[in-house]
Structure formats: C-alpha cells, structure tokens
Amino acid sequence: MTCQSELFNVDERLVEQNQRLLQHLNTSRVCSQESNQLLSEILGYQLDSTDEIRLPFHTDYGRNIKFGKNIFINCDVTMVDIGKIIIEDNVIIGPNTTLLTTNYQTKNKASITIKQKANVGANVTIMPGVTVGKGAVVLAGSVVTKNVLANTVVMGNPAQEVKKGEVF
Predict the structure, then answer these.
(1) d(CA 162, CA 18)
(2) Which residue from 9, 39, 60, 89 could staple onto 68, CB 3.0 to 4.6 Å apart?
C-alpha cells in the first residue's frame, strides 16, 4: 500500500504530529484559548481570534488550510487538505461538511476556495477544484462538483443553481 507522503509529497512527520494534536483537541476538555493554540499548531500559523471552529474538527494534513477572519466552522467538519483549502473572511460552514482536495484514486489534487461571505450548509460535500463565490449559499446536503458563482444559491446532488442575485 502506498502511503500519503509518497502519493502527494507531504511531510509524513507533520501528518503524524497533526494527527496526535487533533486527537488531543477532539477528545480532551480544552478551553477556547487552548483549542485555538492547538489549531494554530496544526495549521502552522496563528489562528485569528475572531475565528470560531467547533469541535470535533478533522483534517488529514493541516498545513494547506488558510483561514481568513471572522469565520465560523461548525462541528464535525472534515478538510482533506492535500491540496490547498482557502476560506476567506466572514464565511460560515455548517456541521458535517466535507471539503475534498483529492479523491485518493489518483495523484491529482486541486484547491478549494470559499470566498468572502459565503455560507455552506450542513452535510455538504465540496469536491476538488471548486470555488464557492463571494456571498454564495450552498444549501444543506448538496454535493458541489463545479464552481458556484458569486451571490448564487445552489442545492442538490450535483448542486444546481436555484437563485441568482444578491443573497444577503
């Protein structure tokens, strides 16, 4: 079996360290300050004090995630960040959402970007290479396989546009 570091050129030591940190973060009673410190260690930079990430939180690498300011990520969100994941300012992500930058069947990886003021509902899956536009809304249960335009509401599997124009 080929390991992740061979397939995607990641530092296996960081993967192991981050998995230990995530296990501690997700299974221990930690205050918000300690939680932010552990998340900062996992991400490799200081998490902004305006960001709120509810636990449990899951990632397989950690170092390819970039969070903006004033974001809210609800519980049980999984970020497969072999490729880059960028979450811009003022974004909300609902519980049980999954962001996938690879499908693991090939060596292919592609970034995911969620632009400012976007709102991603619960139980959403965002596939590799997708950009969710500024102010867009992805309704609960959707599977996003292609880019979502700014100020658009999408839903379904695969997600389709249901409303266009200023959402908020």
Answers:
(1) 39
(2) 89
